[in-house]
Design goal:
Elements lengths: L1 H17 L2 E5 L10 H17 L6 E8 L3 E8 L21 H6 L6 H10 L4 E7 L3 E9 L8 H4 L3
Parallel strand pairs: 1-2
Antiparallel strand pairs: 2-3, 3-5, 4-5
Length: 158
């Protein structure tokens, strides 16, 4: 939750610039064994996308929860959403839903693939759901320290 709060604080100026209300609910302490820099970078990518594609006056919510196996970091926006036919390709390198809009916003189509690689390198996963007209939700799941399913990549060197 501490790392999520740090990224939240870093992203507040961008939210203000776009006229978006960025909110956080990360009150429950959680512990995980991850590379903090990789996590920060992945979360910044996800929040950057959410802020860029949420119209002014709407909100983006960052929530951190946990159970015995996973810590879940959820970014939920209230933007226009993404048509379902694009969802399977969103994590493909250089794929952009709307070429002109992405170019105008400075996108290259590499953000989500990089975020996925950063999260998966730590034994986690990243999933995205979206409903046109309602918004997009991205969930990052990271293993809790006691989770036996942690990958060798997440454990790091002994």
């Amino acid at each position: 939750a501490v790392l999520a709060r740090e990224v939240y604080t870093d992203m507040l100026p961008m939210a203000r610039q776009f006229g978006t209300d960025l909110r956080i609910d990360a009150s429950t302490p959680c512990v995980t064994l991850i590379d903090a820099d990789r996590f920060r970078q992945a979360l910044r990518i996800v929040l950057d996308n959410a802020l860029k594609y949420t119209p002014a006056g709407r909100d983006v919510r960052l929530t951190v929860t946990h159970d015995t196996n996973y810590i879940r970091v959820v970014v939920q926006d209230t933007g226009e959403g993404i048509p379902s036919e694009h969802l399977p390709r969103l994590f493909d390198r250089f794929y952009r839903v709307d070429q002109s809009r992405s170019r105008a916003a400075g996108g290259t189509g590499l953000g989500l693939p990089i975020a996925r690689a950063l999260v998966e390198a730590q034994g986690g996963s990243i999933d995205l759901t979206s409903i046109v007209g309602q918004g997009t939700t991205v969930m990052i799941s990271l293993p809790s320290p006691g989770n036996a399913q942690r990958s060798a990549a997440a454990k790091g060197p002994d």
